[in-house]
Amino acid sequence: MSQSDRGEGGSAPRTIIGNATAHPPCFASAPRSGGTLGATPHLQSCSAATTAFVFSCPGQKEELLGHPCAGATGRNLDAALPKLHALLPAIFTSSSRAAYVLTNSWSQIEYPAKTGRSEATAAEVLSPDNLHRLEQELHGITTILICGQKAKHAVLELQAQGRLAGARVAIVMHLSPLAVNSHAAWRGKSGDERLALWADDVVRQLDT
């Protein structure tokens, strides 16, 4: 089960993907799958970006489509970005994922049929080589959204070691259907309403 589809299934409400604004100069075009040119299953770079999203690890959908945050998690991200752009355009400069760095706390592809598991261990995420990799991918980033527990372990460790050059961080819920649809305080809300509440939480942490 991939990072993008953890918890997918059942009667989870579908969200509506917002219209994307034009891509910034760092990407001339993007594949129809939702990724960007030059992306890998765990990383989408953007030389012009100052904001990054850190998720857990690439899974089966990311392996198949060749870019991070694919499947249901990616659809939720694509639906949330227009909300973030409307609420805090100074930080979220575009409604398109192409304007941001998307990476993962662990770069290796993990899903049960391939590796027997869905995520790395905390020890692996905090290993020196892995932290160095993530530090390099976040170089020049001034705002980081931490999406999920594994991402929290890695990013906060880099922050504690002074390796993020003072970047602001927001710790938010992972955008998987399991996380978004199981939050007790959001019961009875539509998928779009839940993503609006997720975006509000981001803004509360960053708009200070």
What does this protein structure show overall?
The protein has 208 residues and is of the alpha/beta class. It has one domain (36-202): Uracil-DNA glycosylase-like domain (Uracil-DNA Glycosylase, subunit E, 3-Layer(aba) Sandwich). Helices cover 36% and strands 9% of the residues. The chain has 8 helices and 4 strands, in the order βααβαααβαβαα. The chain has a 4-stranded parallel sheet, with helices on both faces. Helix 6 (149-160) links the parallel strand 3 (143-147) and strand 4 (168-172). Helix 2 crosses helix 8 (191-206). It starts with 50 loop residues before the first strand and ends with a helix. The model is unreliable at 1-33 (pLDDT under 50).
Tell me the name of the CATH class. Alpha Beta
User: Level of helix content?
Assistant: 25-40%
Q: What class, by secondary structure content? A: alpha/beta
Shape: globular
Largest sheet: 4 strands, parallel
Put simply, the count of helices is 8
CATH architecture: 3-Layer(aba) Sandwich
* Strand line-up across the major sheet: 2-1-3-4
Please, what is the CATH homologous superfamily?
Answer: Uracil-DNA glycosylase-like domain
Helix/strand order: EHHEHHHEHEHH
The name CATH uses for the topology is Uracil-DNA Glycosylase, subunit E
Spatial gap, N to C terminus: 37 Å
Percentage beta strand: 5-15%
Low-confidence segments, ≥5 residues, pLDDT <50? Answer: 1-33
**Count of the domains:** 1
Radius of gyration, rounded? 16 Å
